[in-house]
Amino acid sequence: MAGAVRCPICRKTVAFDDPNMPFCSDRCRLLDLGNWAAEKYVIPVAGGQPEDNEFDETENPDPLKGPRQ
Q1: Tens-digit pLDDT profile for residues 24-33
Q2: Among 1, 22, 45, 49, whose CB has the most other CB atoms within 10 angstroms?
Q3: Closest Cα to residue 28, out of 16, 4, 12, 39?
Q4: How far does the chain reach from its first CA to its final CA, in angstroms?
Q5: Long-range contacts of 7-10 (CB under 8 A, 24+ apart)
Q6: Strand, coil or helix: what is 28?
Q7: Residue 34 DSSP one-character state
Q8: What is the pLDDT of residues 27-63, one digit of tens each?
Q9: Which 3 state secondary structure label does DSSP give 4?
Q10: Which residues lie closer than 8 Å to 47 by C-beta, 6 or more apart?
Q11: Among 9, 48, 1, 41, which Cα is nearest to 25's?
Q12: Cis previous bond, 22, omega within 30
C-alpha cells in the first residue's frame, strides 16, 4: 500500500489520509495517551540526567530565613 505507515501501538497499516493517522483507531490513540500519562515513554535529555530541581529542606528549610547555622 503506497502512502501508508504502521500504527505505533498495534502495527496495523494506516493510510496517510486516515483521520486517525498515525494511529489506526481511537482506541490506539487513547492507549498511546495512557502510555504517556503513565510515563512509559521518556524523552532523553541531552548531556545526561536532568537536574534535580527539588528543594532540599535539610539545606535551607525556609528560603526567607537564609541558610541554616
Answers
A1: 999 999 999 9
A2: 22
A3: 12
A4: 71
A5: 8/32
A6: helix
A7: H
A8: 999 999 999 999 998 888 887 665 655 555 555 566 6
A9: strand
A10: none
A11: 9
A12: yes
Query: What CA–CA distance (Å, rounded) separates 23 from 10?
Result: 9
Phi/psi region, residue 51 (left: phi>0; alpha: psi -120 to 50; beta: rest), is beta
Q: Strand pairing partners for 48?
A: none
pTM score, whole prediction: 0.57
C-alpha cell at position 61? 528549610
Query: Rounded to an integer, what distance in angstroms lies between the CA atom of residue 53 and that of residue 14?
Result: 41
Q: Are 28 and 9 in contact (CB under 8 A)?
A: yes
**15 pairs with which residues across the strands?**
4
